[in-house]
Specification:
619 residues, ABC transporter transmembrane region fold, six-stranded mixed sheet, four-stranded antiparallel sheet, 62% helix, 9% strand, elongated, disordered N terminus, disordered C terminus
């Protein structure tokens, strides 16, 4: 008698969220999905051939079992028994070998498609505007790049191949059953719904319990993350909430435990019931097969045929169960592709013009003409910004926090595009530049210095791959970081850690400045470049920055008076416009925004400036 069969797991279901967000099936969506499969059509054909072969070869052990019973056992022929057992072994081995070939080809195809999709996604995201990365969550980007695209592998190797394999197995097995005995075949197929209905009912119950359990687990994890984190645990202690938080955790933990017990109990009952039902089919085949033989209803029917029919019926269980989940698998597969296509369809709004220009930019004028900008249409940050920076000059930009100082300079390398007006260099709108050429000529040191997880040398060469060791060391000497590097045990091969965490803020910033020195840009932008430096470090690097700015058009955003005082001209950004501009003395005389900034932000630095040997600031 056959074992309990394969239908031991409940049917899968879509969650309410999945139902609500189920993608709409369209010809265009399916065509787009199959466009990724098309380059591997011959490999797919080979997969389908192996699946069909496996479905047919997989029938042989069951059919041979019938012959073993009728011809070898009943016929008392030991030699034939050995021969049939060898045939069965060969068939089983062939089936496994074909399965391995199919699995290998399938895996190769799925990995190649993942390779193609990841390359396409990475290339697309690399060229997305900076605004995309400031609005999208980093975790979402990583999920689309890794989890979602990798999930395509299961769609191809599991869902698609499983559907074809299940259909082939069902068709081949059904044909074989009807060939052996159409009466018993009908009986075997009729009882399948009797297995499906209880499986649906039990499956829904278990699914409901699993869903509730998952929700409670999420709630419990939220409590753990909030109260046992560094900041959370501190808050619990300061407000003496230990007892309350424990009671809250205990309550949720009890609910999770109760649901887990119910789900486990439901699962055991389900498997027991399904074990009984999966025996029903073979029992009916044995009953009616025995009845037909005893009553001579079908003279061609033998014990071996009945035995083979039972084996074939059991062979139908797994593919039938799997096909019941096809809608769920299909919907989830489409959802996966839809999420991937959502990113691929995001428009790159900042790209090269049709006829890109490459004008000379060294010591050329930068002009802002009635620039209007906002990160969205509803909120305008820059309303009407106009000014000119002569070639080779150093301008400082100051203003209240949130006035848009960084936004002003981010428009030059086209990290964002203006909504109105224009930003031009050498009389050419930056939107008409070849973008790679434009950014190659701009060096930018930001307040939030970013270093890749590698060596100091790796991070420096990011600016210039072909730089010689001498060039690198010269750049580091200009940034006053060479001596520090040489004091490290591994020198320039010192690992900086993730985001440069093994270095201090000042050390990271000086490496960042050295990286820009190595790049040797025509235009220099310093966005709070000395903000992370202490007084000693700042003094050490001021001369380096002054040397770096010689012969370059430079824009400096600074809160430090020592930096502002060295500017050829100071631009004061406020209320979305250039409110004031002039020298330090001229702006103080205006008795406006700059003087207020001077009184609130700069004046406390005067003594520091004097002590460091700078000129006395004008009063």
């Amino acid at each position: 008698m056959a074992g309990p069969g394969h239908m031991g797991m409940p049917r899968r279901y879509l969650t309410d969220e999945e139902k609500a967000n189920a993608p709409k099936v369209s010809k265009g969506l399916l065509k787009r999905i199959f466009s990724y499969l098309k380059p591997y059509k011959w490999q797919f054909i080979l997969v389908f051939i192996t699946i069909a072969a496996a479905a047919v070869v997989g029938l042989l052990p069951s059919i041979i079992t019938g012959r073993i019973v009728d011809d070898a056992l009943v016929g008392n022929d030991f030699g034939l028994l050995i021969k049939l057992l060898i045939y069965a072994l060969i068939a089983l081995t062939a089936s496994q070998v074909i399965g391995l070939i199919e699995s290998y080809i399938n895996s190769w195809i799925s990995q190649r498609i993942i390779y193609d999709m990841k390359n396409q996604m990475y290339d697309h995201l690399e060229h997305m505007p900076h605004s995309f990365f400031t609005t999208e969550k980093q975790g979402d980007i990583i999920t689309r790049m890794n989890t979602d695209i990798t999930g395509v592998s299961s769609v191809i190797s599991d869902t698609l191949s499983s559907v074809v394999s299940n259909i082939a197995t069902i068709i081949a097995t059904t044909i074989a059953m009807f060939t052996l005995s159409w009466q018993l075949a009908i009986i075997g197929i009729i009882i399948l719904p009797l297995l499906i209905f209880p499986m649906r009912a039990a499956g829904k119950k278990r699914f409901s319990l699993l869903t509730q359990s998952q929700e409670k687990n999420d709630e419990m994890n939220q409590v753990i993350n909030e109260t046992l984190s560094v900041s959370g645990s501190l808050l619990v202690k300061l407000f003496t909430r230990e007892k309350k938080e424990y009671e809250r955790f205990e309550k949720i933990n009890k609910e999770v435990t109760d649901l887990s017990v119910k789900e486990a109990r439901s699962g055991k009952v389900f498997r027991a019931v399904m074990g009984i039902f999966t025996q029903l089919g073979p029992l009916l085949i044995y009953f009616f097969g025995g009845l037909f033989i005893i009553e001579n209803v079908d003279a061609t029917l033998t014990v071996g045929t009945v035995t083979a029919m039972v084996a074939l019926l059991n062979r139908l269980y797994r593919p039938v169960e799997s096909m019941l989940n096809i809608q769920v698998d299909f919907t989830r597969s489409l959802a996966l592709f839809t999420r991937i296509f959502d990113y691929l369809d995001r428009e790159n709004t900042i790209k090269n013009p049709e006829n890109p220009q490459k004008p000379v930019v060294k010591n050329m004028e930068i002009e802002y003409s009635h620039v209007k900008f906002g990160y969205n249409e509803e909120k305008t940050i820059l309303k009407d910004v106009s000014f000119k920076i002569p070639g080779g000059a150093m301008y400082a930009i100051v203003g209240p926090s949130g006035a848009g100082k960084s936004t002003v300079v981010n428009l030059i390398p086209r990290l964002y595009d203006v909504l109105g007006g224009s930003v031009s260099i050498a009389g050419v709108d930056v939107r008409d530049f070849d973008m790679e050429y434009l950014r190659q000529n701009i060096g930018m040191v930001t307040q939030d210095t970013y270093l890749f997880n590698g060596t100091i040398m790796d991070n420096l060469l990011y600016a210039k791959d072909e730089a010689t060791r001498q060039e690198v060391e010269e750049a580091c000497k200009v940034a006053n970081i060479h001596d520090f590097i040489m004091r490290q045990p591994d020198g320039y091969d010192t690992m900086v850690g993730n985001r440069g965490l093994k270095l201090s803020g000042g050390e990271k910033q000086r490496i960042s400045i050295a990286r820009v020195v190595l790049k040797d840009p025509a235009i220099l932008i310093l966005d709070e470049a000395t903000s992370a430096l202490d007084s000693i470090s700042e003094h050490a690097i001021q001369d380096a920055l002054e040397k770096l700015m010689v012969g370059r058009t430079s824009i400096v955003i600074a809160h430090r008076l020592s930096t502002v005082l060295k500017a050829d001209r100071i631009l004061v950004v406020s209320d979305g416009i250039i409110k004031e501009q002039g020298t330090h003395r001229e702006l103080l005389a205006l008795d406006g925004v700059y003087k207020n900034l001077y009184e609130t932000q700069f004046k406390h630095a005067i003594e520091h400036v004097r002590s460091e040997g700078y000129v006395n600031p004008p009063q």
